[in-house]
Amino acid sequence: MKNAIQIFIAAAIILVVFLPSYGVMKKKEDRIKEYEEQIAILEKKNADLLKEKKRLEEDPVYLEGVARERMGLMREGEVIYRIKKEE
């Protein structure tokens, strides 16, 4: 009986000592998972940007389309008509 009480007290002490650190460890594991998800998203975005860069460097037709659409550029002598939709 005395052994059982000592084992119970030892288990209770171990539980009191290690339970808070388990909670901290669990929170840190959750943060690591969040960071890994963010890293995966950023790696995908980086890969997409590298593809875009390569395309801009190697495909003159694509480059011209981007310059016209995003930057509003035009060739000399061209006239651009923009049609606005009525609201």
Account of the 3D structure:
- The longest helix has 57 residues.
- The N and C termini lie far apart (86 Å).
- This protein has 87 residues and is mainly alpha-helical.
- The chain is rod-shaped and about 100 Å long.
- Helix content is 79%, strand content 0%.
- It has one domain.
- The model has no long low-confidence stretch (mean pLDDT 87).
- The protein has two helices and no strands.
Outline the secondary-structure elements.
Blueprint: H1 2-58, H2 60-71
Helix pairs in contact: 1-2
Mean pLDDT over all positions: 87
Counting structural domains, the number is 1
The helical percent reads: over 70%
Discrete helix count: 2
**Fraction of residues in β-strands:** under 5%
> What composes the largest sheet?
none
| Number of extended strands | 0
- Overall shape: rod-shaped
Oligomer: single chain
What is this entry, summarized?
By secondary structure, the protein is an all-alpha fold. The chain has one domain. The chain is built from two helices and no strands.
Descriptive key words:
mainly alpha; 2 helices; 0% strand; rod-shaped
